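Two folds, back to back.
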Amino acid sequence: MFPVYGPATVTWFLMLLLYWGSLPFALALLWWARRRWQRPGAWRRTKALVVVVLAGLFIDARFIEPQLLTVRETRLGLGAPIKVALIADYHLGVYKGRGYLERVVDRLNQLDVDAVLIAGDHTNSPDRPLDELLAPLARLRHPTYSVPGNHDESMPGPPLAKQLRDALIRHGVQPVEGRYLDAGRFIVVGLGDWTAHKDQPIGLRQAPADKPRLVLMHNPDSAMQLRPGSALLALAGHTHCGQVRIPGLYRPMISTIHPFDRGLHTFAPVPTFVTCGLGEVKLPLRFLNPPVIDVLDLR
């Protein structure tokens, strides 16, 4: 129940309150609307209907949409016979648990891809040992590569970068931050987290140029330091695409310096694809923005 790696902070208690207080809050809204509906008067009934609609939207954003799992296929037209699955930000801990990751792995194993790329933020104040929470990753049938995110580097969150790396290796996932690996049809280069100032492209400078190079990072702002033409594609997460994606209002929720959102961005020195991720932080809500596995065809 309590965090395994570090103390239970005020922020952690607030997240717990938001998570477990959501159902009583929704029921209170519906109870209030029912009381108003039972009283005579058109205005009272109008207010009751408005509250019912708002309660329905809240129930969708809190209890339905975060538990969905969608697969979005995108053809990028980059001329390379490569197909990868990109995931990020499942944030195991307060809001998401091992059971959800089991579903993600089941869905990934059904896909015809060359590799699975994980763009960081595996954790959110985990309440179980990482070996236990990440155990489903051992069942992945594709080669899998990973980099850490800001929540894995204690920005915010407990300091567990080493424990995370060790757990990933034990479950067959290859951490690539600060280095490159030959992934068969392409070279995967990993950057550390931008917030932790560990995103220097050391591996990219060392990587051979005889195969297409894909740069995996957490924060897409890291792509802005790359040289034009140094890689075929950069892949990132972090933004959650606003998480609660209310049209016209969600953009301030995206914590990047540059105007990254979702999908492919060509204003960066290297084409950069950003996934909306799988989990939630701050609020246990997703709206008009279900959790997603992005399947990218680079042909």
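---
second:
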Amino acid sequence: MPFSLPNQCPLQPVQLPWVTEAGCQLAMLRLDQLHPQVSGNKWFKLQPYIEQMQREGKRGLISLGGPHSNHLHALAGAAALGGFSVVALMRGPAQDTPTVNDLQQQGVTLHWLTREAYRQRQHAAFVAQWQQQYPDYVWVPEGGDGVLGQQGAGQIMPLLEASLAALDWAGCDALFTAVGTGTTWLGMQAQSKTPVWGLLAVPRHYLAATLRAEPQLVDAHRQGFGRVDDELLSFVNAFQCATGIPLDPVYTGKALMALRQMLRAGKFARGSRLVFIHTGGLQGTRATPNWPRLDEVAA
């Protein structure tokens, strides 16, 4: 495979009134800048599955997602880099979206499933059926979830530790990441001595039952997964203009709004050093026509 996990990543200070008023320092780990397509946390979650595929001499990976899936978009990019094949099980009905167009242009084999069929994705019989149809492909759970995905996400921690020196920080007091499946949060938490807060982009009932009562998971979904409102648009527009950092409507935008609320509520002691993990997902902004964009947001 022609790429491996990076050993450094920009850690960008974020200086905004709501951070200063809380007496804290905030920096953002710019995982979104690691690669134009395999960006954010996706690189880390996919790496162990790619390594399994290589060890077993398999032809490719099979996974699943929706018509705007950041996970599948990154997987297609990784396949283009690594020279392997991808099969994508898509949540139907079939749609013509920028993400789907990218998958098709990169040679991904698509299977559109009914919503009823897609709901069976976590059942063993569903997985077995597709593994039988594609025996030469390694199964990757939705979003890169699973033990391997968590192990990969845990490798964000050494990268963060190496990046702290650029700010002359010996360490930090709390970490924050947006949460969809919980894979990244679980992986980071397992490798971190610093508290890791998960900012939920999904309602709690979307999570595995074992995660729903976790006290360090904070609701951030704003009345539903993927829903955009005027307050979110206003917040993101102001943030992007002030910092030059692009955000997405599903994960990072909402997660930062939740972090602002935590700071305003006095959740962290004055003088705290906080790090927010930018998990990428910027290609998904194309699904929201009125989303405020910066020139650096990749198509």
